[in-house]
Fold:
Amino acid sequence: MHPAPSVIVFTVLSGAGFGFLACLALGLLPVAGWMAFAAWGLGYGLAVGGLLASTFHLGNPQRALLAFTQWRSSWLSREGWTSVLALLALAPLALSDWLGLGLGRWIGWGGAGLCVLTVLCTSMIYAQLKTVPRWNHWSTPVTFFAFAAAGGAILAAPGWAAAVLCPILGACLLYGWQRGDGAFAAAAQTLGTATGLDRLGRAEVFEPAHTAGNYLLREMIHVVGRRHAAKLRVIALVLAAALPAVLVLVPLPGMRALAFALHLAGAFAARWLFFAEAEHVVGLYYGKR
Amino acid sequence: MTCLPAKVEKRLGLVIDLDTCVGCQACVTACKGWNDQGAGLSDQDPYGADPSGTFLNRVHSYQVRPEDGPAQVVNFPRSCLHCENAPCVTVCPTGASYKRAEDGIVLVNPDTCIGCGLCAWACPYGAREMDAVQGVMKKCTLCVDRIYNDNLPEEDRIPACVRTCPTGARHFGDLSDPDSAVSRLVEARGGYELMPDLGTKPVNRYLPPRKKGAAAAPALEPLAATGIAGWLDRLLGKI
Structure:
């Protein structure tokens, strides 16, 4: 799949943002006054920034509000609802922390739950697709949860909690890659099943349907991004999980910020791979994957 | 509404005969021609070095090697299969992608499509292509603007690809009616679905190429040489 920068930025930033907001809502990072303003501002900034980035890959972003209409069937629509509701539901608690209104922390529980639902909806957009065997698995939502939890914990949770969640994220990544590498073969779709010609014999491409490129080749059959996959996996694992797990335990100022910056860089690498390595069954018609 | 209709009254679709298709691309051209009206199907750099464009129908060519017998070329037109359980419809966040209850045709409303591309990701068959100029998804409409069009002569009230096919490899009809010509054709020729494991329940069917008869004698039968060549053949065989 084509690793569109807007979608990578969106899923990484809003995932970390909603994870951080959930941590703030649960009171893992006691904040007050302008410190609270900065913390909640960062959470809202990441979440909203990510959501805005997602509109850049739309062909007609001016109609984006229509995406709220089909929540009954569409995970993308549900994600729109849960994200907006989460941001609205957390506003009273954010204001209370900033202005010292003293509202009970329980009013943030619903918002925290909506943050979790938002991450679930984002991940299900990908996990629901039977056409992309690498994504079509429970490990996709679990990994998205692990990213949100680790990202939020690095910024907001006690050091030991972040130091536990980062290796869990690493394990999710490793499992996802290991399973994902065999997912296409396990789905057992071939040029023979895609065309039904397997009932005659062994099918192979004789001549392409068109000599120039098209939307399908550009969007679904993106091979260039896989060239450095092995290196990017190591980079993603070290930056997103390994280094932050150590840094959060170092009792020096600025370590959390450094750990979060490294984690985000690793998350970008992992998300790039998430798209670039995903193979769509339509590639079978072209003899490509 | 992107929930699928609980029940469709008809299942209009195509039956494509892979035995008859010669891969002439006439259906591709006729489809592009008919659907290029109005907003149309845009092309990018059509006469330049790097042409690209939006098409609703593509014809591939494959080579198939049977276990016994020579390889054969199969031309394979690929377009929307108007699936009963269309995954492209349910993923749509805006309701632009929908399946009609009256005849089962899957359509995109270009006025409400936001161009997110998720429907194209959900389709296993590559039936949807984003129009790079309009930023909306395009797909086969089963020529919904022909098949019910009273302004056209009756023989033209079929999809443009079917109307134009010079070998009669494309058939249009109601596949929910077991007595329709297309249903009988599917029954007689063993018409099949593409990637049925994915649960999309396509309406369109493909008719497999007929089994080719073996040639009477192998093409490269050892030659029985006569005359001087025969004498040489026998002589050299003994050395």
In short: Chain A touches chain B through 58 residues (CB under 8 Å). The first strand of chain A starts at residue 202 and ends at 207. Residues 132-289 of chain A form one domain.
